[in-house]
Design a protein that fits this description.
Peptide Deformylase, 9 strands, alpha+beta, 188 residues
Length: 188
Amino acid sequence: MKLPVYLYGHPVLREESVDVTPDYPELKRLVADMFETMYASEGVGLAAPQIGRNIRLVVIDSDVLADTYPECAGRKFTLINPVIEILDGEKVTRPEGCLSLPGLSENIPRVEHIRLRWLDEDMQPHEEELSGFLSRIVQHECDHLEGQLYIDHISPIRKQLIRSKLHNIIEGRTRCDYPVKTAPRRRK
């Protein structure tokens, strides 16, 4: 089932997520729904807060980027309770976008090499070193689990320059080709 993607300004995107327990109800159904939502939205990653759930769950399928980023070939996985360890302190700046910030893209500095530990949807543990753009995707999605968005990594001046675009997203004045949920309206 396609789920609405929560847009910038919704409080759920700024909350820290909690660990997923083995008894989480209908976890495999949720994972399947997240993949369906991600594909319908033409994304390569989706974190649970983006569908209104503050749990440490991410789905990624980066294979569509394999022609440009070979490290993304065949990479489809579910990350439950992921933990990132930075292995290379040198940062590389590349453009990023986000389903929760439609119509925006900003150059974001991130490290290129990480070690990732996670559980799969069968709660089996994994550990792997990731590099390049795949590492960036994982870092971007895991930021969501900490209540962070990629725009938190841009300069205050740059954020000021995109302020009106951010305001339009909050107010629901942004066009999306996928179902969305905007921030609750404030009472006057």
